[in-house]
Amino acid sequence: MAVADMGSKKFDYAPAPESRAIVDIRPSYGLFIGGQWVDPTDGHAFKTISPSSEEVLAEVSEAGPGDVDRAVKAARKAYDTVWSKLPARERGKYLFRIARILQERARELAVLESLDNGKPIRESRDVDVPLVAAWFFHYAGWADKLDHAGFGTSPKPLGVAGQVIPWNFPLLMLAWKIAPALACGNTVVLKPAETTPLTALLFAEICQQADLPPGVVNIVTGAGDTGRALVEHPGIDKVAFTGSTEVGKMIARSTAGTGKKVTLELGGKAANIVFDDAPVDQAVEGIVNGIFFNQGHVCCAGSRLLVQESAFDEVLESLKRRLSTLRLGDPLDKNTDIGAINSLEQLTRIRELSEVGESEGAARWTVACELPDKGFWFPPTVFTGVSQAHRIAREEIFGPVLSVLTFRTPQEAVEKANNTPYGLSAGVWTDKGSRILWMADKLRAGVVWANTFNRFDPTSPFGGYKESGYGREGGRHGLEAYLDV
Ligand code: NDP
């Protein structure tokens, strides 16, 4: 082939599927209560599907109020008789053991997460699962050092924690909840999201493998009603919730006056702010990682891009060029960048809000790519000409949709960034260190990333202001939520 011809030829990626043979999905699952698999008392079950193929993966039990009550009682018994009496070092050893098993079974966990959630294996393998193990290692280390955490000598645990988590990072949210709770000496009842229960159920097996005393961790699967029964159960001392602001507000109301300690990690509409002195290629990678990582199903996603007016054309052109190289498709293919939308319900919401964006006058640009016939898919989408009043600039879309606004001065960027009911995260891209510090001081966001985005670390606290919730998870700060202080 002539050199000129080769220059114009496009080389496609060959398929590189990760084998799913490593996972052993059972046809049906019971509830994990008191260290055992038990059937739900009323016998109800539901199916969990793979969002990329709509294939039924397994049948999962739906816990009713009676089952939640059994789980809370099992957790209480384990707390009273074993876990609260165990020397802190011994608690730590269990957490270390769980962390090591998580590492040993990392590939299995990553494949199962991608199957049940739809996220690319590249992310579940390289981001989610390593962070899950890191969270357990981190809090394993804290278990016998609580006297030195800054909460007085011998801080006491709270008792039984009721934990409700969403579908966007099923196993990672489990780790954020269970690792600090156990390290502080609490026992837990956890409810995973209806659409992504499988890795939590595999985690139950890992607890058995680690010989964790029965009842220290209980997993009750189900939908919103199961979550409500858990949150409202009088036998729990602590509620930890991650999910929508709407449900978070309901939980705040139902727990008010009960004496339960509550942490809420809710929605966001983060501003990712790019100044004209930022290195454009690096900023574009950060924009892509900010909103297209995990299909945009990220509470702290950089869903509002604020670009300094003088850099707008250059940034937009580079961004569109980069987005055209992303590969959408089979989550188990190691080349895939964009996986499936987690559910038809979420896809419908993303479609609706995108249509609202167009009808309100914003200009829509979508990557030209083929969508698979089966499953739930939405191509990376960018809206320009967005004003602060548009719904796509105010509401959490929770999908691969970016709204682009412009600003002229740092002051204007701060005002626009803070003009949201949320306050979970923000990003700043600039060459000037002093400007980063000035911006970080003014932005009302729990996390401010500088020249990076969507970076997580177990040593770093995470949480929001305003309608993004309250309480912090991660690091030393995350211990407070599980101690009687
Ligand atoms: P929810 O807030 O409904 O779900 C989060 C968790 O809470 C799930 O386990 C859910 O169960 C459970 N739940 C639902 N209702 C109650 C209740 N009344 N009491 C206790 N627990 C309850 O989020 P959705 O999955 O419905 O998503 C809706 C929207 O919320 C998304 O479009 C997105 O915008 C936003 N969202 C934000 C998240 C974030 O981290 N910021 C995470 C998830 C969603 P079940 O799954 O069975 O309904």
What do these coordinates show?
- The protein is of the alpha/beta class and 485 residues long.
- Helices cover 38% and strands 16% of the residues.
- The model has no long low-confidence stretch (mean pLDDT 97).
- The chain folds into two domains: 256 residues, Aldehyde Dehydrogenase, Chain A, domain 1, CATH 3.40.605.10; 180 residues, Aldehyde Dehydrogenase, Chain A, domain 2.
- The strands form four sheets. It has a seven-stranded mixed beta sheet, sandwiched between helices. Strands 8-7-6-9-10-18 form a six-stranded mixed beta sheet, sandwiched between helices. A three-stranded mixed beta sheet has the order 1-5-4, with no helix packed on it.
- The protein is globular, with a radius of gyration of 23 Å.
- It is built from 15 helices and 18 strands.
- β4 and β5 form a beta hairpin.
- NADPH dihydro-nicotinamide-adenine-dinucleotide phosphate binds next to α8, α9 and α12.
